[in-house]
Design goal:
Belongs to the mitochondrial carrier (TC 2.A.29) family. The protein is built from ten helices and no strands. The protein is mostly helical and about 300 residues long. Helix 4 runs antiparallel to helix 5 (about 115-145), helix 5 packs across helix 7 (about 180-205) and helix 8 (about 215-245) packs across helix 9 (about 255-265).
Length: about 300
């Protein structure tokens, strides 16, 4: 499971929150270049015409290479500051609340394996709650990542994360920080449920196979499964979320969905699928491996008698 299994010493919510936030931030730092490539691919409109209309960004490695060549390696880590802000809030809350919410749904006297439906429901709930709090950090992260190389003499829209927060509030109002909240709740509730429930379920299934124990290999396999399910299920809402946050031309979630379908076709909703899986697959592996070790460390501090 994501948290301590029955029979092990439980750790406090504060300990789970801190472990989750640390693991999520570490995974963010390691994988944000792939996320930047994913955002650029998702925001790229359909090419029109012949050679002159060829898309600027093509494929995961091509996009990473183009950004690094035109803007420098540092550009691949654009949005890392709000990304860390986001993971401290979103990562800590969605994972930290998962076990308590799951226990609430099954009841305190429940014994046995938790049904998959309850795991999914808990993931949907904590994902929605967490992103409602963290939406401003997501908005700023996407806007910083979306800005490419500018012509000489043209100033950047924002000088940094803090400047972006203040500029958006000043120019667009505080409510603008929650732009795209609808698709963001849909996206993160769905992806959170896919990640946490699938990790929980895959890990539980693997541990029933003779020879497998609660070790790094099990965490690695469960993390890959979580990333794959998250991308397959969440990619369409992820594209809509990125387009709404990166381009103010869309009036609503439905408007963005319809325009994307009409102008770019149904496959546009899976734009950046490979970098998205590369990002979420590697992100989940790194995050869950780190989380399991961080929680083991916290458990040893909170319950030294059980070392």
């Amino acid at each position: 499971m994501v948290a301590a299994t029955k029979g092990k010493s439980d750790i406090s919510f504060a300990g789970t929150f801190a472990s989750s936030a640390f693991a999520a931030c570490f995974a963010e730092i390691c994988t944000i270049p792939l996320d930047t490539a994913k955002v650029r691919l998702q925001l790229q409109k359909k090419a029109v015409g012949d050679v002159a209309g060829l898309p600027k960004y093509r494929g995961l490695l091509g996009t990473v290479g183009t950004i690094a060549r035109e803007e420098g390696l540092a550009a691949l880590w654009k949005g890392i500051v709000p990304g860390i802000h986001r993971q401290c809030l979103f990562g800590g809350l969605r994972i930290g609340l998962y076990e308590p919410v799951k226990d609430y749904y099954v009841g305190k006297d429940f014994v046995g394996d938790v049904p998959l439906s309850k795991k999914i429901l808990a993931g949907l709930t904590t994902g929605a709650l967490a992103i409602t709090v963290a939406n401003p950090t997501d908005l700023v992260k996407v806007r910083l990542q979306a800005e490419g190389k500018l012509p000489a003499g043209v100033p950047r829209r924002y000088s940094g994360a803090l400047n972006a927060y203040s500029t958006i509030m000043r120019q667009e109002g505080i409510a603008a920080l929650w732009t795209g909240l609808g698709p963001n709740i849909a996206r993160n509730a769905i992806i959170n449920a896919a990640e946490l429930a699938s990790y929980d379920q895959v890990k539980q299934t693997i541990l029933k196979i003779p020879g497998f124990t609660d070790n790094v290999l099990t965490h690695l396999l469960a993390g890959l499964g979580a990333g794959f399910f998250a991308v397959c299920i969440g990619s369409p809402v992820d594209v809509v979320k990125s387009r709404m946050m990166g381009d103010s031309a869309y009036k609503s979630t439905l408007d963005c969905f319809i325009k994307t379908l009409k102008n770019d076709g149904p496959f546009a909703f899976y734009k950046g699928f490979i970098p998205n899986f590369g990002r979420l697959g590697s992100w989940n592996v790194i995050m869950f491996l780190t989380l399991e070790q961080a929680k083991k460390f916290v458990r040893s501090i909170e319950h030294p008698q059980n070392k």
